[in-house]
């Protein structure tokens, strides 16, 4: 089936939806805005976007194209978080204790645009949300190229961007901005978490072939993983096969890998590209002859390629639903998500929910929607609750310090249910996985 697309999303392609009527929940403005913010000149969409009894959020995720399945999962996480924030759900209150109903008493309304994983589409849609709806916050990602483009838009427009899925080092590295924050793991932390697990399982001096998508996510993840394994284990990259987003056929890349002498196939592709390239690697006879490694886990990969392919495969991830056994908040999240949507959440949904919950906490902590004060709230070190234990923001680059989860694919006979694809091998604390704040060239820029 061919999807209709345009480089500039029409009004029809932008779904405007509101969850929950604001009713009589708005607080008097004097209670919402401290005097120091009230005295400031307008900036971005403030204060215009906060005048009524609700505030607007612009969401852009891929709903068509190679990342569409992951985008829909991410969107469900955002939708559940908005619903929970508006009703003052106990799960939100566990992360943002000052939340009652809404944020600073204002209900959240939102619009959704299909980015198709294209930076221009995402930027044009979010620009319209900012201009027409006075969006007080924007979000999106799944493609790191989109995330980087929205970073730049946010800094220019002085509207906060809370990043959705983005695995590139650059998002909070050389392309970081004062008006952008990211809570999920990324190339460097993934590499430093999975690297020791691979060396422990397989030893030193192995030959590896990489499959890399040709944009910022792929290049930075491949570099981080290769750097760790070569420096710490003497592993050797014998080939790096770089492919465009949405490639329909990987046979030429797989032929090169088959002739490379590699013992390990490290697949950095994402979304449907990861599914296709993995399926074709099996058809070519590369799997299970070579060991498959997924350094940056793709939601729904195991479901789509089958547990016989992912059995024994190591992957690094943000979250897996069986973490409910260790973390009470994770259990509550998995249960409420599954009840609403009929499946156990993947890490995209978890990431999206946490990003919004932590944004609500930052705004409530600031006591205002005034953007510089909200940003300073993020930059004020404090311990925060999450679905993976205690976390905190790093003020220098706006990256959340959070654990990375190492999983290994279960054999089909060991699966407790149809979604029990992975076992959690280790939850690696985040602080020791991160590069120094300036190592990747982060310079946040100004508040105003």
UniProtKB/TrEMBL annotation:
A Pfam family of the record is: Peripla_BP_6
The record's listing under InterPro entries reads: BCAA_transport (IPR051010), Leu-bd (IPR028081), Peripla_BP_I (IPR028082), TAT_signal (IPR006311)
Q: Gene3D superfamilies, alphabetically?
A: 3.40.50.2300
Organism of origin is Ramlibacter agri
Q: Where is the signal peptide?
A: 1-37
The UniProt similarity line reads:
Belongs to the leucine-binding protein family.
The name on file for this protein is: ABC transporter substrate-binding protein
Q: What residues does the Leucine-binding protein domain cover?
A: 55-410
PROSITE patterns per record: TAT
Q: Keywords assigned by UniProt?
A: Signal
């Amino acid at each position: 089936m061919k999807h209709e697309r345009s480089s500039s999303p029409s009004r029809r392609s932008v779904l405007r939806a509101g969850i929950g009527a604001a009713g009589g929940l708005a607080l008097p403005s004097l209670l919402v805005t401290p005097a120091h913010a009230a005295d400031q000149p307008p900036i971005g969409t403030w204060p215009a976007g906060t005048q009524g009894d609700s505030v607007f959020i612009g969401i852009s995720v891929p709903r068509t194209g190679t990342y569409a399945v992951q985008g829909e999962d991410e969107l469900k996480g955002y939708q559940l978080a908005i619903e929970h924030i508006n009703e003052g759900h106990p799960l939100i209150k566990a992360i943002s204790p000052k939340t009652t109903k809404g944020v600073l008493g204002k209900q959240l309304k939102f619009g959704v645009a299909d980015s198709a994983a294209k930076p221009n589409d995402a930027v044009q849609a979010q620009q319209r949300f900012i201009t027409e709806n006075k969006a007080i916050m924007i979000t999106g990602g799944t493609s790191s190229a989109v995330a980087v483009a929205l970073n730049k838009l946010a800094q220019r427009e002085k509207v906060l961007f809370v990043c959705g899925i983005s695995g590139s080092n650059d998002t909070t590295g050389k392309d970081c901005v004062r008006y952008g924050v990211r809570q999920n793991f990324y190339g460097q932390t993934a590499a430093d978490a999975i690297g020791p697990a691979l060396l422990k399982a397989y030893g030193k001096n192995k030959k590896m072939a990489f499959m890399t998508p040709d944009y910022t996510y792929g290049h930075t993840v491949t570099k981080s993983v290769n750097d760790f394994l070569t420096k710490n284990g003497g592993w050797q990259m014998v080939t790096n096969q770089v492919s465009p987003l949405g490639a329909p056929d990987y046979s030429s890349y797989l032929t090169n890998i088959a002739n490379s002498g590699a013992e390990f196939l490290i697949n950095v592709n994402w979304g449907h590209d990861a599914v296709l390239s993995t399926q074709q690697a099996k058809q070519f006879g590369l799997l299970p002859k070579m060991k498959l490694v997924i350094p940056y886990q793709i939601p729904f990969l195991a479901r789509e390629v089958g547990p016989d392919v992912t059995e024994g495969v190591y992957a690094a991830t943000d979250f897996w639903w069986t973490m409910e056994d260790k973390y009470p908040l994770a259990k509550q999240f998995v249960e409420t998500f599954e009840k609403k949507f009929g499946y156990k959440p993947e890490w995209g949904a978890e990431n999206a929910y946490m990003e919004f919950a932590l944004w609500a906490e930052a705004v409530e902590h600031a006591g205002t929607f005034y953007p510089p004060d909200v940003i300073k709230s993020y930059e004020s070190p404090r311990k925060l609750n999450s679905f993976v234990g205690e976390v905190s923001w790093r003020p220098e680059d706006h990256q959340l310090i959070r654990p990375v989860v190492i999983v290994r694919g279960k054999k089909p006979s060991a699966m407790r249910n149809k979604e029990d694809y992975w076992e959690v091998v280790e939850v690696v604390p985040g602080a020791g996985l991160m590069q120094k704040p300036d190592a990747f060239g982060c310079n946040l820029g100004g508040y105003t």
